[in-house]
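Hey, can you fold this one?
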Amino acid sequence: MDNPTEQVHLPIEQIDAGQPDLFATGKYYAVFERLRKEDPIHYIDSDDLGAYWSVTKYQDVAEIDGLYEIYSADYKHGGAAFYDSSPETNLVPGKSMIMLDPPEHSTYRAMVAPAFAPPKIQNLESEVRARVAAILDKVPVGEEFNWCEIVADELPMQMLSTLFDIPQEDRGKFLQWSNLLISQDEPEFFDPASAQQNFENFTDYCFFLWNKRVESGPGEDLVSMLVYNDKEKLSPDDYIGTMILLVTGGNDTTRSTIAGSIVGLNKFPNQYQLLRDDRSKIVPAIDEFIRWQTPIHCIRRTALQDTELRGKTIKKGDRVILWYASANYDEEVYDQPYDLVIGRGGPKHLSFGKGLHYCLGSRLAELQLRCLWEALLERFPNIELVGEPVKVRSNIVSGYKKVPVVAKA
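Sure. Predicted structure:
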């Protein structure tokens, strides 16, 4: 397609909503608005992306997300990512909970669930606050800096290092690997010439952690939970597949929302002032940040049987894309969905998924955001956006590469 960013003006049957350039430019909002109104269950046989259905309404996305008997997330049927595994780079993960249906999904989820239990998350609060304070100590007050580099990329990777029990000085490697693994349409993050070697570096480090836990005995970290789990003996590929999920899932949702919250509050300054005036609004603000930002654009399912949805016949084996980036902006569900409105009504956003695949780390993400915003409003009540944010080119993650700001005490 010559100019995918202008496809909102194409005949409806030609719209290809998965084009990564749409998300880099932010023009996907208009495309999804048109699909919701004219063709909410939309089929395209794309030259670039292959054949797939786009599901764009809140009700349909929420319903399908839990119907694993009909719409599978299992890797045997293609998995949960927009694309199948890449033969060009051989970045082929083994099993992980996000790419499994019951009963295997429950087995894999149970391996790491103890790390995200409410008491464990509560015990992390003091560490989160200490890390937030140390990060904000490095903010250059009154000078322009990249919010992503100094803050948004830092906090989730520091906490991920704690969960993995790895040296903090290695967190930069995991940030690079996370970008490699989940943003393969972003040239700044993914170089086909070096991707295979970087992936091998990632797997080597993961196996180093495995062997270290075998030698030292079990701990309370995530790697120990995988090594010493009593649910299933993990193959090397399945261990790597699970590590990929933990690294990307533990990083991208939180850092995207940290960046997006600054962008959103600057776009809607009345809401920023509301937050400054009333700190009790922080918790509902976080929920709205996550809806408005929608850190993960979509999840993929594969039809296990012929089925019908809104009068459309979906064939067995068809690829079905559930667009959270559209469902969270459904006009029939949210009043003024494009506005950031702290304390808005309506149902829970779908950014963490729904049903059995609901994000296991959601409480930790919300804890990090709460601690960060409590500290920000105390120390830097005005983070001013001073340039145009630069988004990641990806139809999977709604991330930012640059958010230029000035912090004012």
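The first strand starts at residue 41 and ends at 46. Let me know if you want another pass with a different chain boundary.
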